[in-house]
Amino acid sequence: MPDLTQSMIENWILNEATGQFHYTKVLDGLIEPKLYPQIRTILHRLKEKNVTMPVGGRDGWWRPVDKSIEELCWWDGDGEIGDSLLLPLGINKYCYIPKPSLIIVAGKYNAGKTAFCINIVNLNLELWENKLDFYVSEGAEMMRAKFEALNSYIPKPPPFKMYRRTENFADVINPNRLSVVDYLRVDMDRPYAIGNALFAIYNKLGDEGIAVVAMQKPPGERKLAFGGASTAFEPTLYIGMDKDTLGFEKVKVPKLETDPYAVKIQFRISKGVNFIDVHEVIE
Question: What's the pTM value of the predicted model, to 2 decimals?
């Protein structure tokens, strides 16, 4: 290899590097270890030149500077936030769901998260026809029984796609479709990392996309899903479910003067998917 130069490394970063890289892998890792101190020096110079940036919290890791930017022409269009998603339990009267949006449904075990997700799919068959994807952890047999208990008249095949998936949802989500995820698992050894997974999903959404993500809540009185406050950064709407009760943890675009955080929606679930005896309580 010829003598190492700053221009060689800059050219590699601009034209060949993809995503994050460790400094020992610069130039495809073909550099002798004795030159590693020189590489570190060059990378810091390229940082000042706005070519590369260190990855926070990971010593020795870098990424190319992302100079892509999207202009939002906010003056173009009617400016109204509409009802772009139909939600169960009368939730639409409390909030608007703009596009793009991430919605979190956090619930304890057996609190009704799956019922909530299936109802969203069923309610939006026409509104999001052929632009709706449902990601589930259960198999076809279980899901068939649930859909037939909710809507025996659902077309077969239905006007949406269902996929069995348990991780890496941002890799497959279609940016401008409605994506319903039941559910996003949390690595209990690294619960703090779940915020990055949610950001990746949100960041994948295009101008017309919405993602609804179900998550598990810990036992006890905790209001947020595993991962805590890191799960609340991106959502437009954050719903918390306990047994027979739903509450709002975050409403970014409220509709009514009524304080949504004082509202509790109580219900029972029939046949695992049907919400019945629905009524509201103002605390």
Answer: 0.80
